[in-house]
Amino acid sequence: MPAQLLLNLFIAFLWMTLIDEDELKFTTFFAGFLVGIGIIFFMHRFFGTQFYLRRLFKTIKLLFIFISELTQSSIVVLGQILSPKLKIKPGIFKYETVLKSDVEVTMLSLLLTLTPGSVVMEVSPEGDTLYIHAMDVEQSKAGLIKQLKNFEKAIMEVTR
Amino acid sequence: MTITLSIFIPFLAAIFIPFIYKRIQNRHIGWFVIIVPIALFIFLASFIPSIANGSTYMHTIRWIDSAGIHFATYLDGLSLIFALLITGVGSLVILYSIYYLSERESLGRFYVYLLLFMGAMLGVVLSDNLMMLYVFWELTSISSFLLIAFWYHRKKSRYGAQKSMLITVSGGIAMLAGFIMLQSLTGSFSVREIVATIGQYTDEPLFLWAMLLVLLGAFTKSAQFPFHIWLPDAMEAPTPVSAYLHSATMVKAGIYLVARFTPIFGGEAVWFYTVSGVGLFTLLVGSFNAVKQTDLKALLAYSTVSQLGLVMSLFGLGSVALQHGYSPDSVIYTQATFAALFHLINHSTFKGALFMVVGIVDHELGTRDIRRLGGLMAFMPITFTIALIGSFSMAGLPPFNGFLSKEMFFEALVNARNLEVFSTGTVGTLFLVVAWIASVFTFVYSMIIVFQTFFGEFHPERVEKPSSEASFGMLVAPSVLAIFVVGIFFFPNVVGNYLLRPAMTAIYPSFAGAEGLVPHIKAWHGFNPALWMTIGVIILGTILYKLIKYWRGVYTIAPLRWNLDTAFNAGLTWLEGGSHFITRMYMKGYLKDYLVYIFTFFIVAVGGSILWTGSYSFDFTDNSPIAINEFLIVLAMAGAALAMIFAKSRMTAIILNGVLGYSIALLFVVFRAPDLALTQTVVETVTTALFLLCFYFLPEWKKERSARKTKIMNGIIALSAGTIVTVLALAVQGNKMFESISVYFEDAYLLAGGKNIVNTILGDFRAFDTMLEVVVLFIAGIGVFTLIKLKTGKEDKDIEDQ
Amino acid sequence: MSVNEIGEFVGALLILLGGIASVISVFGLIRLPDVYTRSHAATKSSTLAVLLTLSGTFLYFLFREQFVSVRVLLGIVFVFLTAPVAGHLLVRAAYRSKVKLADISTEDELHDVLYKIESENDGTSDKS
Amino acid sequence: METLITVLVGLLVTVAVYLLLSRNLIRVILGTAVLSHAAHLLLMTMGNGLKKGSAPLLGENANSYVDALPQALILTAIVISFAVTAFLLVLAYRTYKKTGTDDLHALRGFNDE
Amino acid sequence: MIETMLTVSLVLFSITILIAVVRIVLGPSMPDRVLALDMIGVNLIAMIAVVSIILKTKAFLEVILILGILSFIGTIAFSKAIERGVIVERKRDR
Amino acid sequence: MMNNIIVMPMIIPLLTGIILIFLRSYTKTQRVFSILSSIATVVVSLVILNRIQHEGILRLDFGGWLPPYGILFVADSFSTLLVVTTSIVTSILLIYAFSSIGKQHEHMFFYPFIFFLVAGVNGSFLTGDLFNMFVCFEVMLLSSYVLITMGGRKIQLVESIKYVTINVLSSWFFLIGIAYLYGTVGTLNMAHLSVRVAEVGQGPLLTVISLMFLIVFSLKAGLLLYFWLPGSYSAPPTVVAALFGALLTKVGIYAMFRIFTLIFYHETVITHTVIGIMAILTMIGGSIGALAHNDIRQIVSYNVVIAVGFILAGLAISSEVAFQGAIYYLIHDMIVKALLFLIAGTMIYLTGKAKIQEMSGLIRNYPMLGWLFFITMLSLTGIPPLSGFISKVYLGQGAIETGSYLLLAVAFISGIFVLYSLLRIFLNSFWGETIISEDDDVPLKKGMLVPCVLFAIMTVAIGVGAEGLAPYVSDAARTLMNPEIYIDAVLQGNR
Amino acid sequence: MRINDVILRTVARIVVFIILTFGVELFLSGHNNPGGGFIGGLVLSSAFVLLYLVNDIETVRKGIPFDFKKIAAFGVLLAVGTGFGSVLFGEHFLTQAFGHFHLPIFGITELSTVVLFEAGVALTVVGVVVTIILTISEDV
Ligand code: NA
Ligand code: NA
Asked: In this entry, which stretches build a coiled coil (chain A) (predicted)?
């Protein structure tokens, strides 16, 4: 994968030297980079690995999942704060994740924590269990776990 | 030139003595030392004829030219008398000391001090420049200090030395102030120039101050009441020292000063009353106290005090002659001065001899206590003879020189009674009575010396050593002095014509050559009042001496028992105790107190002057508008700040400080200061981190248990400080007087090639500040490292460990 | 209205929304019963607020001055990255420093795990 | 604005002085910190007026700029007060470790002879 | 219009800060206070952004980023202090 | 014309300090390098002093930026005399440090801090910019903070907390004083400040602001606000105490002279009267304090206080002669105070005791030390022909000329207290029965004695050879008396 | 239960690089934009502070085995040295020179001795801040 990036940069640089006679410009480099992307996308099977920008698309997908979750739960929490009577039942629950690497667990935790109504309190020393504080355990635990699964899947698409 | 050199010779000798002392083994070092005074005496004596003919010698070496301070020597009749006394008596004292001091003593040190003193004393009497005089004046105090404490392991020696040093140096400092005033008046430090021009300045208020200050110097040095208290304690010095410094020479420096300054200050009523009054009173006090002494040396010390008083008073009386300048009528008053000079010489001879006698007694018997002594005449005939001559001369009996000068003293007093000037009438009579009473006591103690020591029964068990006559060598010096005592009685006019005449001319320049300035001294002058007074003294004195055990009780009567010494000691103790008390009162060691002092000073000085000068004119017209959000932020900051005071935990306070810091960063943004906002943010964070780093180790805050009153006081101080800062700032904002220089920096790009003005100021216009600021930071960094890592091994003994 | 003006308006609107979100979240900070619930209000709602504001700012500069502010973008990424971490750390610190959960809390699956092991540790250290 | 900030400065000074007069070392150090905040703000108000002009960056082509000199001075002052605070804090820390107290009443020094 | 919106949001942010200060003062627990401080930091970022728009300058965009970085660092330091007392360990013991 | 040489008295120590950081583990090299560079500083400053005699006041515009916009160093006779003395005193004290401070300190950057301190001190003397003076002060102060705590004994820590806090406070006053002044007249260059203040006349507001500076420099100098001084000067190692005693208060005094002769000299009725009263109270307080204690270090420290009052009496009098006196006294005091502190420290080192009643008869075992102390005592009392004398004469003249009799009286009487306080040490500790037998006494290292002897020689030399200094001193006093000389030199051509 | 800092450490790894880059950028752009040696240095040191907060001292020391005191000293030397450099060229102490140079790749570039000066400042700041924090932390 880094090989693809290096190659892409090389193409861009080559492009730049080919196009510009006397002056070096960033815009030319960028254009060369785009050209490189195209070339590598066509050729990536020869490397025996995935096209390296595929992750980008997956990441963007993850981002959108996140933003939608964020908006939904934000509204829920804002509503809870603003409701004349506090009707919440907060609590801590345990969630065992299928994710393995540090980066994956971190990403999951960040996303979960960013969405309102839940905070990751602890990660077990082994890194496979998250302890989560939820704003309203009784009502949203099921929803939260669904959200977690959603995130797990999206994350794995990016990282694996 | 040679005269100047004569001052230096003793100093030079003093430098070499320690080296010689190390080299020689079998010869007393004194034999080398004695060469110096003898040579100098001969040298100075060679000037007698020319000086008697009216010559004077002057020589100047420039020293601190810009200040008019020169090394100017001046030899005239007055200085010559003193110079001869210094070297003459000096020679005899050293001769005496050779036998008196054993080789076990640290003689090197002794003679160094003695030579230092001799040089200093010569310097005093030969100086023309006041500053040079002062130099040597203090040097005599110092060498005297060293000599008194020669046996410094004795507590009493140290005490005596300290006392003399404190009193004489203090007087010296006063005198210095007086000298400087004289210079300010006349523009010169030269005595001769001042004498020449002083007439124009006598009406200035400064003139009087200068006079009193100079007199303070003279009185302290010459042990005049109430400064005489140092002299008896100075007797802790080895006897040769007492004979030399504390009878013959140093104590006469004050007399010299008065004589020297008579042409300047004489003729003033204040001078007359002060000098003669203090002199007479000292005479009375000294003689009265001498009688009760049981230590022979102490007795001599008090006698010296009284004799110095006598001489002093004579100079006072003699100054009257200058009141209207020269006239044939006023010459008569100069006789007092003549008597003073004459008695000065006489006193040196008989008192020197007496001190040496006491030294011999002490040396041979191991005690000087009159109550233990008696009957020494039998085995110390020569010593007895000398003592007799000395004492009788002191008592004013013929055929000894003391008689002559004593008679002249009485005559002067009688003359003074008739004085028209200064409306002396009744005071003159008082003077006369005082003098006469004092003379009676003088007679009594003189008799005590002779009779209680040498007559009566000898009790061997009361003395420490077996008794015998002193060695020949020890007797030489006092004998010579005794011969002078007798000799001067028979040939007084030799002294009068060759030594006193030029001295009189020096003191009364306007009387030079006047008829009767130098009278013909006669032992027999008919039955005049003075003689009757002497006879009275003898009769009453004899009676009092005989009946002494019946009236000794008066010394225990309250006012007479009171002792200035006790007062002095109490004063010092009180001074130390009081100082300790006061210092402890405000130097408690609490940081808080110190800060309170500082803020109080700030509030009083700055706040007070704001109110006093009314510098609180405000002008709010130029204020920028406030947005609501800015106001709210300021409100938040105010809240955070106030909350810091009441914060119950340390971390809360730290957090609140963080709020302040970050909010200030926002204010910097509002005020268009991006660089500041950036710096503030980072610095605040790092500071907070540091607080937390150090925080862990500290215990949780305890509630301040300060009293409510303290809290209110603190609050008032804090509020006042805050108010003053604000008021002053508002006043400044309303009173901008100039445009700032910072307009210049707006050309930063042209000048320094940078578009960020602040950065160009920091990196270029004021790069030096930045460089140093980096250094400050660096020092702090390395300093923190050192502070934590350097732990010296030894632990707090509260003592320097390195 | 030109495209730029619309862009600017959207930017300002986002900022205003951010302001409102911020006030609401601070309302939560006052209102909610314990530090854990407050942390929800603080870390998330205010993160949302700042994200809205920064996005608005980004848009504003983009449309107003045709200026792509990398710093603002970086700022957004940064807040995204750090805000949850900060929240997580704080809540953990609170729990480990034994700040009590509010009474209305219903379950606590962490308590036993954390303190059972700790007391075991204490036991071993006593023996040694 | 100037007046508002000046009053704030006065308040900060008041708080700082009150903290300085306390018995607790950390409070004293916090006092010095607040004191320097106040000084920096005060310096700010001493320029040619707050908010009058643009940030002193020539690249922005404004008509007038705020006074840059006080800003430079404050920057220097901030760094210096940071250095001093750091040292003072460590000093307090070290003193506490050595003496076991941060109560200034217990830290009198020479006078407890 | 835009101007008003911006001003209003500035006021809103400063109200947030003001209330957060109240939370700091009230506590009750230390994490509460740090939370409020963190919130103040975040809101300051927002305010600076808005001020930049109002002043039409890019001069303060750096400050936004810096403030983000540092309030993060500050919060870490505080939570470590609360959690473990020590904020920088010599050697991680467990 | 290029006057880069006048930055050298600051830059040489600065660079030396930095380079010594890298030489941490090479003690010998550190020493050699230290002494060489401090001698170089002496030479350079002497060269500057003489150039001023020929060329008048020298100035160096940093970065070539003309005053009042840039920062500059200004070397006039007054400042340069102090720089020279500082450099000499430091060189001699370094010799003492070599044999006394110990490996541990040397390994912990002791010499760098000394050099930073000197850099700060010299910078403060030379700078022509008020804010830069603030920064130079900080360089000096930070170094002093470190030096006073070095070793970390309890007493050091406790005293330095007070010292640091009070100095932080005074730096704060300095900063807001600068703020006010800048707000009012819009400039920082001292000569330019003088011009502007003169132009509007020193009104009430400016007078009030000047009092802010009075507070700052009084704190630094120990004028009336001296309570921090005795404790903090008693705590550090001997060399450091000597350095403090000799240099630190002098910087405050210098600044006071500079500010109140160059800028705020219009309203003497207020400012100089206040200074006079403060000087009197300082002398009294110092005198009382010097008698109040039995601890040598305290006695010695209060003697510093007395001297401060004495010198500033010269400023209160404010005549050319009085200035001369004050300048002579400054030089004298730097040397003799260093000597006094060294001797006191050596006594404590030798006996392990600090109270006068606990030591006795030292002169038998250490005669040289005893006589050095004796000379010091006399010199401080103002006994001629030692160095304290001439200043006393000049100050007296100044006081009399201007009718400041109270100042005169207190100044001269304080001399007696100096004498008495030191006499107590001499009589109790040097004289008296020898307690230590000659066998088990601590040997007095040559390296400790030599610096003392050098200082003693200097006090004699300055006293006897006062005329040699006269042209410099009178030039300095003339410049102080006539601010336009300084102003012309700084703002030549661009006023 | 042992503390698992996985989230913090993972994020910090990224954040540190952002801060470092930003710090260098601030340092370089200081002459024309907000920033400069001080701020750059401060930001760089805050990156180090973050490293120490997240990891322990020994770990960081293995990764960055510098003596920060020496770095600071070198910084000061550089700052003072640039001042001295101008003396060698016969200019006033601390005279900064700047000019526009044609460099390969960068084109017309403004080069200024101020950069050296500022680099010294930045190095000092980094060295000092890290030294202080390390020293205290090690003293536990
Ligand atoms: Na003693
Ligand atoms: Na003793």
From this structure: none
Average pLDDT over chain F reads 92
* Touch criterion met for D and B (3+ Cβ pairs within 8 Å): yes
Q: Is residue E94 part of a domain?
A: no
What is the per-residue pLDDT for A157? 80
Protein residues placing their CB within 5 Å of the ion ligand 2: F 360, 428, 432
CATH of the domain at B598: 1.20.120
Q: Is residue B769 part of a domain?
A: yes
Q: Do A67 and A135 share a structural domain?
A: yes
Physical contact, E and B (3 or more Cβ pairs within 8 A)? yes
Residues B575, B517, single domain; the answer is no
Contacts of F139 in chain B (CB under 8 A): 772, 775-776, 779
C68 touches chain G (CB under 8 A): no
Residue B731 structural domain: 591-737
**Shortest Cα distance from E46 to chain B (angstroms)?**
11
Residue B177 belongs to a domain: no
pLDDT tier for residue C125 given thresholds of 50, 70 and 90 = very low
- Asked whether residue A29 falls in the same domain as residue A58, the answer is no
Q: How many domains does chain B have?
A: 4
- Are residue A89 and residue A14 in the same domain, yes or no? no
Cα–Cα nearest to C84, from C57, C53, C46, C112: C46
Least CB–CB distance from F432: residue in B153, B206, B739: B153
For residue D110, give the nearest of F135, F146, F231 by CB distance.
Answer: F231
Determine the structural domain holding residue A119 and report its residue range.
Answer: 52-159
Same domain, B315 and B438: yes
The SS3 of residue B672 is coil
pTM score, two decimals? 0.92
Residue of D nearest to E59 (CA): D55
What's the mean per-residue pLDDT of chain E?
87
Total structural domains within chain E: 1
Q: Which of A11-15, D27-31, E38-42 has the lowest mean pLDDT?
A: A11-15
User: CB distance from B787 to chain F under 8 Å?
Assistant: yes
Strand residues in G41-139 grouped as ranges (E)? 98-103, 107-112
- Which domain, by its residues, includes E28? 2-84
For residue C101, pLDDT beyond 90: no
Tell me, yes or no, whether F41 lies in a domain. no
Residue of chain G with shortest Cα separation from B785: G135
Q: Which domain holds residue F277?
A: 267-464
Residue B218 lies in a domain: no
Buried b (16+ CB within 10 A) or exposed e, B290-317: bbbbebbbbbbbbbbbbbbbbbbbbbbb
Assigned domain for E69 exists: yes
**G1, part of any domain:** no
Q: Is the ipTM of this complex over 0.90?
A: yes
Q: Inter-chain contact C82–G15, Cβ cutoff 8 Å?
A: yes
Q: Containing domain of residue C46, as a range?
A: 3-127
Confirm whether F306 is domain-assigned. Answer: yes
Domains recognised in chain D with CATH numbers: 2-51+67-105 (1.10.287.3510)
pLDDT digits (tens, 9 = 90+) for G54-113: 888 888 888 888 889 999 999 999 998 888 888 887 788 888 777 666 666 666 666 677
